[in-house]
Task: structure prediction
Amino acid sequence: MGKRSPKILHLVFVLSLVYLLMPVGGALAQPSSNWQRLSAAPQGLLEQVQKDYATDSNLEQPIDIGQMHLLQVRQSGAMPLFIVNTRLVGIGSTANPTCGQAGCLFYGYIQSGKEYKQVLNGYINDFQVEDAPPPIQPTKKIVNQLPCLQLTLYQNQANQLLSSRLCFDGQEYQLIAPPRVLKQFQQ
Result:
């Protein structure tokens, strides 16, 4: 997927703007029992992630993508969805090539025959406020054979916990509504 479609670039831009307001500090969302190392993924998915990551990170030296985390989402009535957090385990956010103030690069894939098609490409802050929902999680709502995704973020300037939702439009995940306030913290 060397060339990105304008819609995917638009999603990256929108998510980057939304999450640019998030704090750099906080607790790193620990992968729940549903997340696993990417090294456990099917070979075809590993190869596609390697290609996409090489394109998006512009690294001159190879890295072990098996350190990244994978969430396999399997829901009744939906195609399997593979979500990849590109954060490299054991490396601080300043040394992670695809992590920064806007968060880390996340990919989403579906299987199409023997190949894996990218349906999500955007920065999501994977730092989590204590007792808040996970930064990214599937919902029960299925649109175009894939679950919508709930994003939860903390907006530091407004001292608010926000929520937004992405749904699959048949080609890729799109932000379907502006973020809404889940909780206002006392100043």
Observations:
- Residues 103 and 125 are 4 Å apart (CA to CA).
- The first helix runs from residue 6 to 19.
- Confidence is low (pLDDT under 50) at residues 6-32.
